[in-house]
Amino acid sequence: MFEKILIANRGEIACRIIRTCRRMGIRTVAVYSEADAGALHVQLADEACCIGKSAPAESYLRIGNVLDAAKKHDAQAIHPGYGFLSENAEFARRCSQSGIVFIGPSAEAIEQMGAKDQAKCVMENAGVPVVPGYKGAEQSPEFLHAEAEKIGYPLMIKAVLGGGGKGMRVVRKQTDFPEALESARNEARNAFGDDRVLLECFVSGPRHIEFQIFGDQHGNVIHLYERDCSLQRRHQKIIEESPSPFLDEKLRSKMANAAVAAAKAVKYTGAGTVEFIVGDDRKFFFMEMNTRLQVEHPVTEMITGLDLVEWQLRIAGGEKLPLSQKDVKQNGHAIETRIYAENPETGFLPSIGTLQRLAFPGLNHNNSADNRATIRIDSGVEQGGEISIHYDPLIAKLVVHADSRKQAIRTMQTALAQSGVLGVETNLGFLQSILQHPYFDAGKMDTLFVDSNLESLLEENQDSVDWVCWGTAIACLLEDYAESETKAQESMEPCSPWNSLNNWRSGFPEPHRVQLRNQQGTETEVMIIKENNSFRILNETEGILVTVSRHGDLLDLSWNSSGLEEYGHHLLVLSHESQLLAVHEDGRTLFTRLDPLTYEQSEDVSDFRLSAPMPGNVIRVLVKAGDEVSSGQPLLVLEAMKMEHTIVAPANGIVEEVLFQPGDLVQNDAELIKFSLL
Q: Rounded CA gap, 126 and 265, in Å?
């Protein structure tokens, strides 16, 4: 077994690999860019080496820099993680030429499976069913348009070297094809340096189901069952689970056999994933093979009890597969949700900034829905860390395991209600909406689920419910008490009434007053009287008594008045400066705590400022000055994080001035278009 390996990656996957290496007694070398000098994976590794500037092209994608770091630190092997160089055949080949073990498949296997068009030919020869379509060398727009006519609409455009949803478009009618082709090619060129595409027939009721496979250097190949990855946004997975609620044993067995056959066809070694699309007619087709460890591998680990990173290390070291196929068991049900710094309300645009507050179950107070359920957090960031423009905005993966799917869903709902982030926008509320949807509960979701139900899944633009507002105000008051007590202890007269928040008055106690404003702009003054371990909320008609037990940022609430059965009993409240995030099982609300002594200048709502959500390049401008536009109409397309992001009109209005042109580089928050309401 290796004594020291280098991890050619960053973030949560680097931290995940380090965890297994520590358990196995293997020393680790982290590599980092200038932007990641203080990152968590750098802190956790035994050694670390800077490999370049912040942009991936100048650091994590520099093969020479990574190999130089491995040689400098005497690493015997390199684990590529996922993304970056993990599926780069040239990198695998140069590792071998340098006498360093590449922890993954051979360069030849990566090449065979790396290009989707070539992979489909290999699979057809192996007898694995593939989606009908065009995968040829001719790539002129006119020829591709003609091929699209032959296939029929709707169809899929996919980058030949694509992955992670980049360079992929669904085209539903002929007139949309030219623009979709241009957009897919631009994105593919920026992400992979290759704008070749293939066309596929669109499968009705599509489900994305993949099988984890492992092969060793002795010719053995097995599968570790499936993962259902049908819940996606922008063709990127956000929720994965196993077992798939769609498969029966007969179909599972057929797909598993096809996955093993696919791996054997390329003499595969190490961890890989064979991805299938399954139609509502239960016919399945090969999509692609990922020649690396997947983001969602914890789902498989939870249902099998195996450490897939350990298997990778042992196989790369020449050992045989630890288990035979008959020894691999599938136990219980696992669900993973990916927590991203992004805003679902703006088309899932990434959100960059500082993680001012970060809370997950296990880091605070864990109320599991089932004491046999397991909650796991895989993260590569910590409170105070940054979500950067340079890298994927994944904050963490939240994974649960329970005896049944019903229990796993309930455990995940509870876990999400104990998770919160302040400092950047996140998809946490969106994930809660999905977990509460009756289609998810019934297992009736396909890859179109999010797009088809987007409006209902987005957090409703409504005022916060009373009990959430009251609980948040109590959290503010508890913070005030703690701060007052600290100041009193540090003063010359700790027992002085001037250092106390006591609300005693002659006759009747004066209530504490907490003023809050929610995201909709509604302002509420909550009046509270503290009574021993309870608080009395004074509303217009009565006083409502609630007993509060505090566990870090989580409040357990016991409502002592009748008729309040619908009120929640757990509330997570995170605060930073005047910002407050209140999280409960039905959603989350962002509040601003108002200071009655501070004057706030009112905002002019007669116009809107359309600004860049992050630094990037303008690639298309779709309007000109004087144009009258409708709400939601695309105005401009920005390329950032190797993805295209469309800026749309926030309301019906008029374009006053376009401030940038195609090819221009814009900075974060730069005004793009002057816009006024009609």
A: 6
Lookup: tokens for 634? 């695309």
Burial of 441 (0-12, 13-18, 19+ CB in 10 A): middle
Q: Which of 424, 377, 357, 385 lies closest to 572 in space, CA to CA?
A: 357
- Distance from C-alpha of 629 to C-alpha of 657, rounded to nearest angstrom: 13
CA distances from 228 to 210, 212, 442 (A): 7, 11, 14
Instruction: Answer whether 264's CB lies under 8 Å from 221's CB.
Output: yes
Which residues have C-beta within 8 Å of that of residue 549, sequence separation ≥ 6?
Answer: 555, 556, 558
- Class of domain 4-103 as given by CATH: alpha beta
438 SS3 class: helix
Residue 391 is given by DSSP the state: S
Please state the length of the chain: 678
Separation of alpha carbons 185 and 148, rounded Å:
16
Residue limits of CATH 3.40.50.20 in the chain: 4-103
Residue intervals in the chain for CATH 3.30.700: 466-594
Total-model pTM: 0.88
Which H or E run includes 185? helix 177-192
What residues are paired with 18 via a beta bridge?
Answer: none
What is the pLDDT at residue 367?
Answer: 46
- Band of pLDDT at residue 580, cut at 50, 70 and 90: very high
- φ/ψ of residue 84, rounded to 5: 45, -120
Give span(s): CATH 3.30.470.20, the chain: 207-457
Residue ranges of the chain that CATH labels 3.30.1490.20: 132-201
What's the rounded mean pLDDT across residues 159-166? 79
Residues in Cβ contact with 482 at an 8 Å cutoff, skipping those fewer than 6 apart: none
- What CA–CA distance (Å, rounded) separates 226 from 176? 35
Q: Mean pLDDT across the stretch 346-370?
A: 76
Active site (catalytic) residues: 292
CA 547 to chain centre: 36
Architecture of domain 607-677 in this structure: Beta Barrel (2.40)
Rounded to whole angstroms, the Cα distance separating 67 from 102 reads 11
Token pair recorded at residue 263 = 């791996």
Structural class in CATH, domain 466-594: alpha beta
Handedness of CA 498, 502, 507, 513 (dihedral sign): positive
Q: Rounded to a whole number, what is the distance in angstroms from the first to the last CA of the chain?
A: 69
Q: Which two tokens stand for residue 70?
A: 């491995």
Residue 589 and residue 652 in contact, taking contact as beta carbons nearer than 8 Å? no
Asked if residues 555 and 563 have their Cβ atoms less than 8 Å apart, the reply is no
Tokens of 48: 């670390």
The domain defined by 207-457 folds into: D-amino Acid Aminotransferase; Chain A, domain 1 (3.30.470)
pLDDT tens-digit map of 15-70: 999 999 999 999 999 999 999 999 999 999 999 999 999 999 999 999 999 999 99
Pick the CATH number of 132-201 from 3.40.50.620, 3.10.310.10, 3.30.1490.20, 3.90.180.10: 3.30.1490.20
The pair of three-digit structure tokens given for residue 66, joined into one six-digit string = 């990574």
At residue 501 the predicted structure's pLDDT band, cuts being 50, 70 and 90, is: low
- Segments in 387-465 forming alpha helices (H): 405-416, 428-436, 438-441, 449-452, 454-457
User: What is residue 468's three-state secondary structure?
Assistant: helix
- Residue 369: pLDDT band (50, 70, 90) is very low
pLDDT band, residue 606 (cuts 50/70/90): very low
Distance CA 366, CA 554 (A): 9
